[in-house]
Model the fold of this input.
Amino acid sequence: MTLTSAPLSESTWPAFAQLVERHGGIFGGCWCIAFHLEPGENKEWAGRYRELKHARVREGRAHAALVFDGSAAVGWCQFGPTAELPNIRSKKDYEKGLGDLPDWRITCFFIDRERRGEGIASRALEEAVRYIAEAGGGTVEAYPEDYTGQRTSNSFLCSGTLGMFIKAGFQPRRKIAMRRWVVARTVPPASGRRPARVPLGPRRPRQGTARVPSGRPPSARSLRPS
Ligand SMILES: CC(C)(COP(=O)(O)OP(=O)(O)OC[C@H]1O[C@@H](n2cnc3c(N)ncnc32)[C@H](O)[C@@H]1OP(=O)(O)O)[C@@H](O)C(=O)NCCC(=O)NCCS
Done:
């Protein structure tokens, strides 16, 4: 079946909610809220993250590129303006080397347990970048993990892999934890708007492993996918 993409919104909320509920609320009830929480909200909304997430979606304060197979959502890539996603992992180390905050952040992915390894996360990322372009573009940061050439627990990769961001045109900027990188890209504004539901083309063939740095970030040129 052809995969399609649509943004998280009040009309796609039921499909998003079903995907979360099929997986026990994600991490026992997170509802993909951790990156949104502002001081005090954690206490206020404890145990009510479904409600909080839904309220944010209604208010236009929660964004994601959803990937659908038919009417079922099979994955998402969460993104949003930086103010909407104030929390990132390794924040202390991130703040040490901080220049300007980005306009946008891409913070997390979730793919249906039955559909992993099909390239859906990579395609959700491409869609998130397109939505950012349609919203006017700007500087975008993400904080993926470098497990190049290794397998690890899927749960460790909720912010994506360094390789998939490099393939999507992001450049590694600095390391903020043993395996965690700040990657960045400037997305130009898109011309014109797309329809609400967009068919995704055939899956891009894997082009081998993206070259990733072992220590200091090499130049952007040497990090582009081969
Ligand atoms: C990590 C995850 C997003 C990957 O989704 P996916 O659709 O299987 O990923 P893709 O098939 O698009 O693969 C993307 C890249 O990640 C790599 N990858 C995927 N799973 C991996 C793993 N367990 N270990 C190492 N690399 C992995 C793939 O090899 C691929 O690399 P390549 O582009 O160099 O070939 C998915 O396993 C997932 O949803 N995990 C749970 C995340 C979570 O707990 N989120 C909660 C929200 S905070």
